[in-house]
Amino acid sequence: MNWVGRRLPRSEDPPLLRGEGRYVPDIAIGARAVRFLRSPVAAGRILALRPPAEMPPGCLFVTGADMAGVQPIKPGLRRFNYRAVEQPVLPTERVHFVGQAIAAMVAPSAALAEDLLETCELDIAAEDPVVGFDAALTPGAPLVHPIAPGNVAVEGELRPEGFAETLAAAAHVVEFAFRSGRQSAMPLEGRGGVAEYDRATGRIRLSASAQMPHQLRTGIAQLLGMPEADLQVIAPDVGGGFGQKIALLPEYPVLVWLARKHRGRFAWVEDRNENLIASAHSRDQRHALRAGFDAEGRLLALEADILADVGAFSVFPTTCAVEPLMALAEYPGPYKVPAYAVRARGVLTHTCPMAPYRGVSRPVITFGIERLMDRAAAVLGLAPDEIRRRNLHDAFPARSATGMVLDEASYIEALDEAMRILDVPAFRARQEAARAEGRYLGLGLSVFNERTGYGTPAFAARSMDVVPGYEVVDIAMLPSGEVEARIGSSPHGQGLRTTLSQIIADRLGLDPGAIRIIHGDTDRTPYGWGSFASRSLVIGGGACQVAADRLADKLRRGAARLLQCEPSEVALRDGQAVAGAASMPIAELARLAHQRSELLSDAIGFNLAETGQYDPGGTFSNACHAAIVEVEAETGHVRVERYLVVEDAGRIINPMIADGQVQGGVAQGIANALFEEVIYAPDGTPLTGTLADYTPPTCAEIPEIEIHHLETISEATITGAKGLGEGGSIGAPAAIVNAISDALSPFGVDVAEFPATPPRIRALIRGRAPRA
Amino acid sequence: MTEVRFTVNGTAQCVEVEPRLTLADMLREECGLTGTHLGCEHGVCGACTVLMDGLPVRSCLVFGVQAEGAEIRTVEGLAAADGTLNVLQRAFQAQHGLQCGFCTPGFLMLATWLLEQKEGVDEARLREVLASNLCRCTGYQNILAAVRVAAQEIRVWREG
Ligand code: FES
Ligand code: FES
Fold first, then answer.
1. pLDDT digits (tens, 9 = 90+) for A669-688
2. pLDDT for the residue numbered A715
3. What CATH number does the domain located at A13-127+191-238+245-278 have?
4. Where do the H-state alpha helices sit in A289-407?
5. Å from A657 to nearest chain B CA?
6. Rounded to whole angstroms, how far apart are CA atoms A15 and A18?
7. Most B-contacting residue of A16, A17, A114, A497 (CB-CB within 10 A), to test interface
């Protein structure tokens, strides 16, 4: 029986469907409630900070001064002119963005804590804030942090010799400058944590809505100067993360500090306003591209100037360099770019800091290069698919302009397949007819690759002080024959318990129901990284496979001893160890291995435990997305009529779960393209502090997403799986906005900003008459 | 403190609450029914949807004291006493209508109400009603599919 490749229903679902999930807010009930006093101004000096004159019993007010000795958050990076900005857990001198936590109020209930915050005394001498690129980069602009001259926190540059000449010699030079609006990952469950002191052991248990429990533990122990062994971090059911919950933000060390100092149980549950203004943002970028093409439309040279607003601080452990440096390293994407010059800067402003959000910079760079391709196609008189076909890598392994190795993929095949499914001539006829009626339809393409499942070497190349990458899995068969696999990854909706059990089941010849995946608890799992960067199934899955193969080997040796044959003659299938005509239940073998070890120990030792490790170099998934939209010229409203994904993520472990990842990613990408934006007033006040302002889409806005799979099995991963967590959100902004631009081509306008909201579209076409 | 008497999933409750406590917090904190989730507390996401006297309400926008005498239904009341999933819950699992599961109780209660309407459900009505709630993980397609399949199974689906 092969479990890999099947649409196995998720073992995660039944408790969640019964309302029996345990999320942080559920664990928080009954704990002392913590609420944070947050800065109302973007920049200023704290003059006075005092609790209300009367504090009711059971209430506490904690400031940075109370937490003296606690280290500031200071993630490190050893290259790229990185300025190591420090973030005090609770500031005592200055505030740097609206929403920054300044003090914690503890009360028996959250409502009372909020009442008390109303009457705290907070006096801040406001200063001129730095908001937006222009303000930050103007010579002589105030500095967000004195350590970062010119407000540049990180800067990378590549400029091969002779680049200018190559560009100058090109037959056509095409330019494109654009802006991508600031986003929030906006998991439906915000962040939150419950820290509890255990009197018997003196340890603290922190339950946190987090993606990287082991890193949270290490990071908090370092900040507080406490024994790491005294801290247990648990990620219980987590209501989505999408990158936002990677970060070690100040609230968690405050909770652990409170639990240690006051020997109690303290809970903070982030509210939606806090999540939108003070959790973490992403993708506030401005890029300027110049590309030289030869007369046939082949790209000769690409130049990119990348600005990424990183907000006021650098987030642990990814640092504020994650967005600008990913854009720098990965701009050429799936295209052959013989000469590539780039400058990328991370710019500090008095706004909420940035953390990775599904796809990190790739939705932005894919937008850039895919809009550029369409512009070049127009200049050269080529069809959009044709110019792409002429530039896509078609021989593997290929080496990117920045030295990354692109493994076997299906860039051109995916494009061809999408074109075949779409029937472009029929669409063009329909588009033509619609235009005659004053209706504007457009078709947009987006071709991209997605670097996934990259281990330690890729992260080490970034020179981060904290280098993620590998995963370790401890697997053990119990005397009952059930299997426990303890993983370092930490899923939060990806269905990893199900998919990993499918991988292990096949290796051990067991039913997935006999396999438990244990995750999200630093006491019970090996040190590992977590779920981000489309890596868990590739790296955690690879480590599961290694561990399960070792265990299978042991089981075969044990069975061979009992069945009196060679280990190589033993097959594990359907719960049996089979050798020719002889067989025995694997569960019986497990019992004997533990309880009658005298029969087996010389062949297999004393238990059925093994460890698997996996640290791959990385692989690339790829896809072609295509969108058909209708733009209503009078209102600027965009309706997505059709959305097609042809994607290649290598071997698919569970097609149902894979499609769910793609659909969810595309929905977030469409949201990014059309609806969602974090907006600041010029004084640094966030204007989008509720979901009604941030406007995430509902099922009325998100179309059916049509998915077709290609399966290129590359050597780059041992399971053949390439990872696909982020692809949906990477491809959608480019496909949608290319479609809008195609629709509006009679108006001779070009969309260079996303989200492409109705007011922005109206501003583009207002006063313009469509060409006939 | 105010005394509130109501029923939840058929069980009589009597709790003492501050008048400002929301129905959501009352269910979660006073009744121990944490299946009802809070995604925004300002009436946009619908994660907190419960049925109150047969109608879906955003329990973050209703005060607990307003539930006096009301019949409340929550996600905990959907499965059989032994935990067996009902038709709708089974369809959510089979169609992969949930990922992180945080929005799920709200969608389940909204859809429970929809499926009980005697006029039945068609595609347009399905989208219109489910557009009340937000999901951040699934892209909605499989949530719509789950409710569609459940509606077909209990024969209230109308081809549009
Ligand atoms: S929590 Fe009630 S609508 Fe969001
Ligand atoms: S499943 Fe995560 S929000 Fe819907």
1. 999 999 999 999 999 999 99
2. 86
3. 3.90.1170.50
4. 322-330, 362-380, 384-391
5. 7
6. 5
7. A17
Question: Domain A470-614 maps to which CATH number in 3.30.70.920, 3.40.50.300, 2.40.50.90, 3.30.365.10?
Answer: 3.30.365.10
Q: Which residues contact A364 (CB under 8 A, 6 or more apart)?
A: A180, A283, A285, A287, A327, A733
The shortest CB-CB distance from B104 to any of A16, A111, A691 is to: A16
The candidate with the shortest Cα–Cα distance to A250, out of A110, A63, A87, A33, is A87
Is B33 in contact with A19 (Cβ distance < 8 A)?
A: yes
With CA atoms as reference, report the closest residue to A704 among B123, B150, B142.
B142
Domains and CATH numbers, chain B: 2-77 (3.10.20.30), 87-153 (1.10.150.120)
- pLDDT tens digit string along B56-100? 999 999 999 999 999 999 999 999 999 999 999 999 999 999 999
Amino acid at A239: G
What CA–CA distance (Å, rounded) separates A357 from A188? Answer: 14
Contact yes or no for A359/A730 (Cβ under 8 A): yes
- Relative to the alpha carbon of B24, which ligand is closest? 1
DSSP at A23: B
Using alpha carbons, select from A623, A652, A651, A658 the residue that is nearest to residue A714.
A651
CA distance A571 to A576: 8
DSSP assignment of A309-343 equals EEESS--BTT-TTHHHHHHHHHTTTTB--SEEEEE
* Centroid of ligand 1 to alpha carbon of B38 (angstroms): 5
Q: Tally A–B CB contacts below 8 A.
A: 173
